[in-house]
Amino acid sequence: MTKEKVPFLCEFMNEAVVLSDGRVTTCCMDPLNQNIFGSIYEDSFKELERKYVDNIRRVAEDAHSLPRCSICYEKIKASGFKPGKYSVNFSEQKKKDHLEQLSSLKRMVIEPSSICNLKCNGCMQQRFDIPSYRNAPRLDMDTVFSFLEGNLGQITTIRLYNYGETFAHPESIPFIKRVKSLSSETVVHVATNGLMLDTHEKRKRLVESSVDRLTFSIHGGSQESVEPYMTKVFNFEKVMEILKDLVALKKEYNAAQPILEWKYLLFEWNDNDEEISKATTLAQQLGLDSILFFVPGYPSPSKRFMNNPEQLAKLGQVFKQG
Length: 322
Ligand code: SF4
Description:
Helix content is 40%, strand content 13%. It is built from twelve helices and eleven strands. The protein has helices at 45-61, 67-78, 92-101, 124-128, 141-149, 172-182, 200-208, 223-230, 236-252, 273-286, 303-306, 309-321, and strands spanning 9-10, 16-18, 23-25, 38-39, 86-87, 107-110, 157-159, 187-192, 213-217, 259-265, 290-294. The strands form two sheets. It has a nine-stranded mixed beta sheet. A two-stranded antiparallel sheet has the order 1-5. Strand 7 (157-159), helix 6 (172-182) and strand 8 (187-192) form a beta-alpha-beta unit. Helix 5 packs parallel to helix 6 (172-182) and helix 6 runs parallel beside helix 7. The longest helix is centred in the N-terminal third of the chain and has 17 residues, at 45-61. The protein is globular and about 55 Å long. The N and C termini lie far apart (59 Å). The mean pLDDT is 95.
């Protein structure tokens, strides 16, 4: 039976996501590549941009026009249309503004590797074996660069991570350096568990690459509190040493970048004052730029902070005031 058309505006469509096999999908909410609309190995940048814009128009007419968007719509509907990064029942003017705002491709997400050195308990990598959904585990970074090269001027941001560990690809650091050398204005952001930045030489090359922002996933204030999610494979002390060295390198180069952030997901087992305080104190002692706290959707999200956005926001503020 054909579903009734549902006009839908999704703010997650502000970027295109290049997967580790070169195929391109609509957003980071599509880990199983259900919304594929092109490939950097087959399409030119301009062809891909045309398809990108076309998808935004199609979804604005009907959320069911793309398979993964259809699933999102049904989930949002089932939850009673809670506030989020989407609009239903919008005015013609709102639709016009949305289409105008997303009339060119300005933000890219690139997944250098779909392989991760960790399998966190409850992460998509553990639940779905992400590499088995890709036709190749690592991107050809020379092709990625050639694809972007003539159009970097219009790309404001590259998020160089998606569902794998960025530094599991040996060419990630040279790629950042090439991008920043050609287009210093393009902001390059990497989120990582940090473990693969395991030599001073790698960290030195990373700081020298001019990467703008590094977000470290460390979900707890000690080895004991990170392990329930990040498993025994994560080495808390090792990552502290890596961060210490990155801060020292920034000082040595007298560089404001990269911004160094600690990302702490609050689960039921690590949402207590003691662990939060340990992490915040360590982040300050190390000389990081910020610590950010989030409540994940899965597994066992913190009940204490889940429906308490004001308290959640205060956790980060304490660090900034420190
Ligand atoms: S509706 Fe869902 S799948 Fe579609 S672009 Fe938005 S977040 Fe992505």
